[in-house]
Amino acid sequence: MEIKHILTLAVIALAILLSAMFGIPAYRVWQQEMAGKAKLAEATQSRQVLVEQARAEKEAAILQAEAIKIMGEAAQKYPEYRQQEFIGAFGEALKQGKISQIIYVPTEGNIPVLEAGKR
Q1: What angle do CA 93, 67, 72 make, to 5 degrees?
Q2: pTM above 0.70, yes or no
């Protein structure tokens, strides 16, 4: 009986050894194939993200150009708009304390006197 058990164990060991000899290389090939597919999927996804980001930047640039064009047309048609915009921004900066120094400009009839030294 003992020889039968030893023979059975030897056959099982031989079967395990043979399956390992053929199975491990096949598993490695399969594993490399799956790793390659994963890398390809990641590269494809990264490319799609970059393409979508570029499209969004292009659309934003187009919209910004349109806004600049509209602002330019408004500034040409209504020159007082720019003056009001400057006054509003200056007043807001003054309220928030971003401007710490006020410079007084001498005027005559609300027109700055530029050549004060020649009088």
Answers
A1: 80
A2: no
Q: What pLDDT digit, counting tens, does each position of 64-100 carry?
A: 999 999 988 887 888 777 777 777 777 777 777 777 7
Query: CA 20 to CA 27: how far, in whole Å?
Result: 10
Phi first, then psi: what are they for 97, rounded to 5°?
80, 15
Radius of gyration for the alpha carbons in the chain, expressed in angstroms and rounded: 40
The encoded tokens of residue 53 equal: 């980001």
Q: How far is CA 39 from the centre of its chain?
A: 22
112 to each of 22, 86, 87, 96, 107, how far by Cα in Å? Answer: 95, 17, 16, 26, 4
